[in-house]
Amino acid sequence: MSSANDMTQVVPQAVDYFRVMPEIVLAVFGMIVMLLDPFLDQRRNQKTLGIVALLGSLAALVATLFQSQYPGLGFWKMVQVDSFSVFFHFLVAAITAVVILTSFEYMQVQGIRAGEYYALVLFGAVGMSLMSSAVELVLIFIALEISSISTYILAGFRLRAAISSESSLKYFLLGSFATAFFLYGVALMFGATGSTSITIIADALHSVDIPVLAYVGVAFMFVGLGFKVAAAPFHVWTPDVYEGAPAPIVGFMSTAPKAAVFAVLLRIMFQADAPGRLWLIWVAAALSMTLGNIGALVQDNVKRLLAYSSIAQAGYMLIAFAALPNNGIAAVMFYTASYAAMNVGAFAVISHISGEGERYVTLEDYEGLGRRSPLLAAILTIFLLSLIGIPITGGFFAKFYVFSAALQANLVGLVIIGVLNSAVASYYYLRLIVVMYMREAREEVPVLPIPIGLGAALAISLAATIYLGVLPGRLLDYAARTAAEWAR
What we know:
- With about 500 residues, the chain is an all-alpha fold.
- It is built from 21 helices and two strands.
- It has helices at about 1-20, 20-35, 40-65, 85-110, 115-135, 135-155, 160-195, 200-205, 210-230, 240-245, 245-255, 255-270, 275-295, 300-320, 330-355, 370, 375-390, 395-410, 410-440, 450-470, 475-485, and strands at about 70-75, 80.
- It has a two-stranded antiparallel ribbon.
- A hairpin with a 4-residue loop joins strand 1 (about 70-75) and strand 2 (about 80).
């Protein structure tokens, strides 16, 4: 009799671990990288540890497929596996794999020891993955900190560059304030509803008159999460941090944490039906698009230009949040995937062109790139056209579905602001394309041959960008089914 009871206890516990399998895989491979690092010399550790980390990210993709076979709540209803969380798990693991491929050559050129670097990338992915499935605010906070601490350190990994240390310190200090806002918002929400579970919070907010404390709690949490996605007016750290951080890490920071935080925002804003969300998001979206695009117009540093572009892109994604639930969930998911593909790819090109010490990162350094390296120039052009939203790229359908969702929600004013900002953004993206093809280089900037790892990263990013622009139906159908599940 007792053995039968023991079996009924073991099986549910095992299923709980299956529901966090990608996080376990990433953490294990991160620890393997750290254990191997002391036994390898400087020359061997670059490639060997990079391959181990790549295998870890690929294993996480497989674990995500395995995880999808066990939908439901786990670990005392703190983790939920559904098609929504599976999508973001897959996206984070894919971004991690592409960033690791991009880093192979970069680490060697920059002379950076690889062990801590690859381990931190994997540990950061653990936090980002956990954020996408967490349905309990304290667990979300813990996952957010796991992700944040890793990226704080990675931002300062160019030890020979003072600007990198400055970016890491600035990111850490401002990020700590933002985290405090989020944690205080969690405390206020607990005071208003008596729970930190998103499901219980939703029930509490529907059953009684919404207390003022809940509005304040939502605002505080939005400040913390808005910082992480570089949404205005919490964006001031972004240009300096992106400029100082290693280029592959900028590609990582600008996509994977954004995807994870947007997953959290979707759960808080839709699943918990956060009060006062519309005007909060409306203002943040309008400010992010406008300030981001205006700031990008005057940039001569390509990394800072794409940093301001990242702020504006966060604004476009927030339009879909304002449109919840009218197709907003599907639009956010599609936009997040499209943006990840084109932005990681763009920073992969930048990491290759920048050279030792990232000396070549200004617009002037890109003059004549179309003649010096036609393939790199063509690839970067496709990513930039996708960021503009030109047809046959993922960026076109991403903006189309976001604006369509907003129009269906009668957010005409926000759509007008978005369209006008898209026109402004086309100027600085096209400016870089003009520089590459229509200007002669004043100084010959060396461009090395594309290595295998970088070539694979660019091929994956380019294929995803074109695929989402030509055949978006499969991803949209998946996103629509996810939205339908939530509606039930």
